[in-house]
Design brief:
The protein is mainly alpha-helical and 229 residues long. It has helices at residues 10-33, 40-47, 51-54, 61-86, 92-109, 111-118, 129-149, 160-172, 180-201, 212-227. The protein is globular.
């Protein structure tokens, strides 16, 4: 018995196992056809459960989707953090490359989960706090690497953007000595890489005869060079 289930009653362990199986079946539906395929009825059918029985575990479709979002963010964040740890002995530019590649590889391996996180949910849907915390593992891996490349901050934050970046860094628990240039590149670099990945998943580069991997490598090089000032 591992630490996650130690001390639980048999009923509680069975409930936890059922919750995990429900999420697994729901992810299979996402992977097969996108987030719109996930309904209480479709998941119940995959589980061999009636919708009323499924409601005992998730009170609504939105609650189930929120659980999927948290788990997907956690998987993406931990994948990126693991890549950063694997390159701990390498220099900062090499770690930035590893981090960006791990992020892209996860997105390409799970394109519909990636779309679920960033584009396919209902307008106005908010990321659950646990999901944001899980995703921040990726940023907390990237920022220190950029911080080793970027020059020290010349002065205290002076612009609204710089002030917002410092507030955000403090909220996610980033080291206090990371230069503002690294914070800025962390956000702007991620947004550009995200855009490239989203276009790659959509097949936009295929009709152009462009190699998305080469485009990604060029963008990562741009981020590294910009971090160095």
């Amino acid at each position: 018995m591992n630490g996650d289930t130690e001390g639980l009653t048999r009923r509680e362990r069975l409930r936890r196992q059922t919750v995990e199986e429900i999420k697994q079946r729901a992810f299979e539906l996402v992977d097969a056809g996108g987030v719109t395929e996930v309904t209480i009825a479709s998941v119940g059918k995959a589980m061999g459960m009636s919708p009323p029985a499924l409601y005992r575990y998730f009170p609504s479709r939105d609650a189930l989707l929120e659980a999927l979002v948290v788990d997907a963010y956690a998987d993406l964040g931990s994948t990126v953090a693991s890549a950063a740890r694997s390159g701990a002995e390498q220099d900062a530019p090499a770690r930035v490359v590893l981090i960006a590649q791990a992020y892209r590889h996860w997105a390409l391996a799970h394109p519909r989960r990636y779309a679920m996180l960033f584009s396919d949910r209902s307008p106005g849907a908010q990321d659950p706090p646990d999901g944001i915390t899980a995703f921040n593992q990726a940023m907390l891996a990237l920022l220190p690497a950029l911080g080793e490349i970027a020059p020290p901050s010349a002065a205290d934050a002076a612009t609204p953007l710089e002030e917002a970046l410092l507030r955000w860094a403090q909220e996610i628990g980033a080291p206090a000595d990371i230069p503002l240039a690294a914070l800025r590149l962390g956000v702007l670099g991620w947004s550009r890489i995200h855009g490239l990945i989203s276009l790659e998943i959509a097949g936009a580069f295929d009709s152009m005869g462009m190699d998305a991997g080469l485009l990604m490598a060029a963008e990562i090089e741009t981020v590294i060079n910009a971090a160095g000032g």
